Amino acid sequence: MSDVQENESPDTKTPSRADLEAALTKEKSRNNYIRALRNTIFSLVVVAAAAVIVAMLVLPVLQIQGTSMTDTLDDQDIVVALRGSKYETGDVIAFYYNNNILVKRVIASTGQWVDISDDGTVYVDNVRLDEPYITDKSLGDCNIQLPYQVPDGKIFVMGDHRSTSLDSRNTALGCISDDMVVGRLLVRAWPITKFGPIN
Fold it and tell me: Residue 7 above 70 pLDDT?
């Protein structure tokens, strides 16, 4: 009977305790990094979602288009509005109209009488409005019968650039209802050089 010689396997080095601890520490660090990265991404997604919800429901951000509100607001300005606030004479509001969002100034509300002189001076309930924001007084495109009483549930609005603004002075737009209002404009956010509250 012949002897069979077995092939010997190459020596395998048994890892030392220090090697095992180093490998374990490295794996723990890797797992901690992945966990921290996942938590950071999750937090950023939650914050972004919350910001979108707040922007849509409470503080919509809008970009001004056109010149009907100069000198108060300019074309391409970015503004922040507040939903659900009460609107008073002098407030600047944004509202929906024909699938667009327009920005005008509140002049009068339900039941009040609006009158505008030929030189563009505005009166509400026979009291002249103090309008320091106006640099372009004009009767403008007005085809309503003056003095005009604001209907129930409506708001009479006008742009600050009175000679060019299409607003409640014309039946093409007329008075707006409360449910059309997006919100009251609070702050101009851009350009940064003009950052500040909207008066």
Answer: no
Contact 86, 196 (CB under 8 A): no
- Please state, as a whole number, how many other Cβ atoms lie within 10 Å of the Cβ of residue 1: 3
Helix (H) or strand (E) holding 158: strand 154-158
Kindly report whether the peptide bond that precedes residue 15 is cis, defined as omega within 30 degrees of 0: no
Smallest Cα–Cα separation from 104: which of 184, 195, 196?
Answer: 184
Q: How far is CA 176 from CA 50, 65, 135, 163, 182, in A?
A: 31, 19, 24, 20, 12
Of 178, 140, 143, 145, which is closest to residue 159 (Cα–Cα)? 140
Q: Which range is most confident: 8-17, 120-129, 136-145?
A: 120-129
Note the pLDDT tens digit of each residue in 57-105. 556 777 777 778 878 887 778 888 887 767 889 899 888 888 888 899 9
The dihedrals phi and psi of 36, each to the nearest 5 degrees, come to -65, -40
Q: CB of 101 within 8 A of CB of 185? A: no
